[in-house]
Specification:
single chain; 243 residues; alpha/beta; seven-stranded mixed β-sheet; 43% helix
């Protein structure tokens, strides 16, 4: 499944190239914008994911689309043997490496430049895989999910935190207004790349959510698939396992 929304619609480069450039451009204030746009609630959502992962006692964890390492740093608290954070954006990884070093976690967390649709790891390498606000940026969603399934060990857990769409009044209408007007406005005020904060809500609107994404996970051989709506459906956690 391909999602054709691009950050820079006036360019002919691929979606993957554009997304990489976009995250390089916004890496310096990405954490600030995340906290601002979600009023800091995204931290609570991430803690819920960490708790789900912790229940399986993983030794080796892969955090895909790790960005500046927020998930990887939080996952360090459950004391696995190793965490690998992978991202396609060199700029985001550089910020993440600085944060990890400052926290004294560079012996536990390795940050790797790589493509989620062509993971540089052996089959069955990880006990757990997480993705925070990243699957909607996959150029080929099915290919990315197949790669995650490949590197996850049998019985391993896969947890996704991603934006979704409220469906009930008045949250549906409020969310649409916030996404269409407020997020781009904040991007124009605080970001060097104004197109990025037009693309992010647009890509969220185009991404399948709820049972639609559950079915995509099942199609790609994941089992025991469940989703947990957050904040009236503005975001969702998806939990699945490899058979």
């Amino acid at each position: 499944m391909n999602i054709n929304v691009k950050p820079y619609k006036d360019r002919e480069s691929s979606r993957k190239q554009q997304v990489t450039e976009m995250f390089d451009n916004i890496s310096e204030n990405y954490d600030f914008m995340n906290r601002l746009m979600t009023f800091g609630i995204d931290v609570k959502w991430r803690k819920k994911v960490v708790k789900m992962v912790a229940e399986t006692n993983p030794e080796h964890i892969l955090d895909i689309a790790t960005g500046t390492g927020d998930f990887a740093i939080m996952l360090a608290g459950i004391k696995p043997k190793k965490i690998t954070g992978l991202d396609i954006s060199k700029g985001m990884l550089e910020i993440g490496k600085k944060k990890i070093k400052e926290k004294g976690l560079d012996n536990l967390i390795e940050m790797v430049l790589g493509d989620s649709e062509n993971l540089p790891f052996e089959d069955n390498s990880f006990d757990a895989v997480t993705v925070g606000f990243g699957v909607r940026n996959f150029e080929d969603l099915d290919k990315g999910l197949k790669e995650i399934h490949r590197v996850l060990r049998p019985g391993g857990i896969f947890v996704v935190l991603e934006t979704s769409q409220p469906e009930k009044f008045p949250f549906k209408q409020g969310y649409k207004f916030y996404s269409k007007y407020i997020i781009p406005f904040l991007g124009r005020l605080f970001s060097k790349d104004k197109k990025a904060y037009e693309y992010l809500p647009e890509s969220a609107g185009a991404f399948p959510y709820g049972e639609a994404f559950n079915n995509i996970l099942r199609k790609n051989q994941f089992i025991s698939v469940r989703n947990y709506p957050l904040m009236f459906g503005a975001a969702s956690i998806y939990k699945a396992f490899k058979k």
